[in-house]
Amino acid sequence: MRIQSLLHPPSTDMPAFNASLFANDRKKTDQQPDLTGPGSISKEDFLLVYDQVMNGKYNEGDRGEIKLRVAAWRKESLGGKKYLSLSLSVDDYTAAAASQSSEALF
């Protein structure tokens, strides 16, 4: 049974992990990160990603890892702090599959 069908109808939006990165005001050594911040994923999106991976609907990297897409936006908080807003999603399996099948034609 597909988990997706229990949650909501299929969407054209890819489930995404969201995060924000701010300058690390507590950094004291070079081993500590330059940027840090909170991240989240909704339970529904987590289950959709799990379902996608368990059904083999992802693009695999050279070492067998699951490929992700990352997008970032420069933003400014209400308090005037500049930060990066990030979105991570499983690499679009359907686009890669379509690309591979069209390459096979030539």
Please sum up the structure shown.
With 106 residues, the chain is an alpha+beta fold. 27% of the residues lie in helices and 28% in strands. It contains 3 helices and 5 strands, in the order αβββαββα.
Could you explain the architecture of this structure?
It is a single chain. The radius of gyration is 18 Å and the shape is elongated. The longest helix has 12 residues, at 43-54. The protein has three helices and five strands. Strands 1, 2, 3, 4 and 5 form a five-stranded antiparallel β-sheet that branches. The protein has one domain (3-104). Residues 1-12 and 101-106 have low confidence and may be disordered. The protein has 106 residues and is an alpha+beta fold.
| Uncertain residue ranges | 1-12, 101-106
The major β-sheet equals: 5 strands, antiparallel
Order of helices and strands, N to C? HEEEHEEH
Would you count the extended β strands for me? 5
The computed structural class is alpha+beta
Instruction: For the record, give the distance between the C-alpha atoms at the N and C termini, rounded to a whole number.
Output: 37 Å
Q: Shape from CA axes?
A: elongated
**What's the pLDDT, averaged over the residues?**
79
Q: What is the tally of helical segments?
A: 3
The figure for the number of domains is 1
Radius of gyration: 18 Å
Strand percentage, roughly?
25-35%
Helicity level? 25-40%
